[in-house]
Write a structure and sequence with these properties.
It is a single chain. The chain is an all-alpha fold. The chain has helices at 3-21, 28-35, 39-45, 49-72, 77-92, 95-106, 111-132, 136-154, 163-168. It is built from 9 helices and no strands. Helix 1 (3-21) packs across helix 6 (95-106) and helix 4 packs across helix 5.
């Protein structure tokens, strides 16, 4: 493998590990072993564990932006927003993706991680704004519902048959509601 291919492979393993344990609770030794490389080589690819975590955070946001762009395609307005929302529901089925995203938010006590997470969220906001063209109020509602979806998915509310859980998991209201 080339260094770039190895870096990509290591990042995939790191995202899985960081999703479960966060920055503090994840071992670079485990990441290296699972990636099939030595720990010293891991640190040649990513100088510190924090650098690797920051790369995982950036990659998670970039993945979301790419997915939203694909979902919106040539649509605009509410149809684009709806397509983006449906694509996000699909993303949240990937528990690793969801937990990595939540670990990014949970790690915002670190100024570098907070800055990377803010930048990623900014890029996500601007992408949805650009793709849909909806006003700020609609964007706030869209992102608020997305955060509710994050919490519901983290608790696996869709698996519950209780009424309250079903109500939490209902689709976002349309612009006409």
């Amino acid at each position: 493998m080339t260094a770039d291919e190895r870096r990509t492979s290591v990042l995939a393993v790191a995202v899985e590990e960081f999703a479960r344990g966060g920055l503090a609770g994840t071992s670079t030794e485990v990441i290296a072993k699972r990636a099939g490389i030595s720990q010293p080589y891991l640190f040649r690819l990513y100088p510190t564990k924090k650098d690797l975590f920051l790369t995982a955070v950036r990659d998670t946001f970039a993945r979301t932006v790419r997915r939203f762009e694909q979902a919106a395609g040539e649509l605009g307005g509410q149809p684009a927003l709806k397509a983006i929302g449906l694509s996000y529901q699909e993303l949240l089925r990937d528990r690793t993706y969801l937990l990595m995203q939540l670990q990014a938010y949970a790690s915002c006590t670190d100024p570098d991680i907070r800055a990377a997470t803010r930048t990623g969220f900014h890029d996500l906001w601007r992408a949805v704004e650009r793709l849909s063209g909806v006003p700020s109020e609609a964007l706030r509602g869209f992102f608020a519902h997305g955060m509710l979806m994050n919490v519901a998915a983290a608790m696996d509310l869709p698996s519950l048959s209780e009424e309250w859980a079903r109500l939490v998991c209902l689709a976002a209201p349309s612009a006409e509601d």
